[in-house]
UniProtKB/TrEMBL annotation:
Membrane topology: Multi-pass membrane protein
One GO cellular component term noted in the UniProt record for this chain: Golgi membrane
Protein name (Swiss-Prot/TrEMBL): Uncharacterized protein
Keywords on record: Membrane, Transmembrane, Transmembrane helix
GO biological process terms, semicolon-separated: vesicle-mediated transport
Subcellular localization: Membrane
PANTHER family recorded: GOLGI APPARATUS MEMBRANE PROTEIN TVP15 (PTHR28128)
Transmembrane segments: 7-23, 29-48
Amino acid sequence: MPELRPSSNSIVVYIFIGTIILHDHVLRIIAGSIIGFIGLCYVVLEFIPSVEPPENMRSAGSDYENATETI
């Protein structure tokens, strides 16, 4: 199973916001469903190794190229 990247926290936020919006009015249900769906799409993309996270979701100072280098 692949290791989750540091951007996983923002994915949890997308899913959380999507689920707390889901109730009451039709527009809130639609908005919550869209946000939750985006969060679930990010979860699926985390497990596809050929897809890199967007620039704004990468952690600062994280260099994937030198991750295997011993210090």
